[in-house]
Amino acid sequence: MNQTDPVVVVATMEAAEGKETQVEEALRTAVRAVHAEPGCERYALHRDAKSPTTFVMVEKWASGPALGAHGKGAALAELGKALDGLLAKPMDVQLLTPLPDGDGRLGAL
């Protein structure tokens, strides 16, 4: 991956039983803060339709350095503190390299 290429991230979090509301609130707070970060092109929260304890954040960053700055930023540090003890297992984070094709609006995030 070239450092100037966009990066897509899919982060999956499973709330501990009974902690779904607290996890959702922490993630919603993070969304609002992260949207202001340089290089953030998408930071969108979702809930798994089949598992109400599972949350998925779909992210798009302008570049590897922008994602790196996000990883060291205040919003992610605060999110880590807010989620402490609320997750059933460690967060699963996938870094993806976009492979756009077809219609530019439809073939890439």
UniProtKB/TrEMBL annotation:
UniProt-listed InterPro entries: ABM_dom, AI-2_Isomerase_LsrG, Dimeric_a/b-barrel
Residue stretches making up the ABM domain: 7-95
GO molecular function terms listed in the Swiss-Prot or TrEMBL record: monooxygenase activity
SUPFAM superfamilies, A to Z: Dimeric alpha+beta barrel
Keywords, ordered alphabetically: Monooxygenase, Oxidoreductase
Keyword Transport on entry: no
Protein name in the entry: Antibiotic biosynthesis monooxygenase
Species annotation: Amycolatopsis deserti
